[in-house]
Amino acid sequence: MAANPHARIENWIWILIYGGLFLLILGIATARIDAFTGWMMAVPGAVAAVVGVVLIYVRSRLKDDKP
Q: Which residues cross the membrane (predicted)?
C-alpha cells in the first residue's frame, strides 16, 4: 500500500494544471497564425487548468485515514 493514499489525485492535479497551462499558452501562440486552431487548443487547456485547481480544493477537503 502507498504511503500517501491521496497520491493519485495529487499527481492528476499537477498534470492537469501544468499540461493545461502549456496547452493554453500554445493555443494563444497558435492563434496568431490560425485563430480557429488556437482557440481549439486554448479553451481545453484553460478548462484542464481550472479542473486542476478545483481538484486542489477537493484534495483539501478529503479526510486523512491516519488514526
A: 12-33, 39-58
28 neighbors 42 (Cβ within 8 angstroms): yes
Cβ atoms < 10 Å from Cβ of 23: 19
How far apart, in Å, are the Cα atoms of 48 and each of 14, 24, 51, 61?
A: 10, 9, 5, 20
56 within 8 A of 24, measured Cβ to Cβ: no
pLDDT tens sequence across 17-43: 999 999 999 999 999 999 999 999 999
Amino acid at position 14, single letter: W
pTM: 0.83
pLDDT, residue 8, reads 87
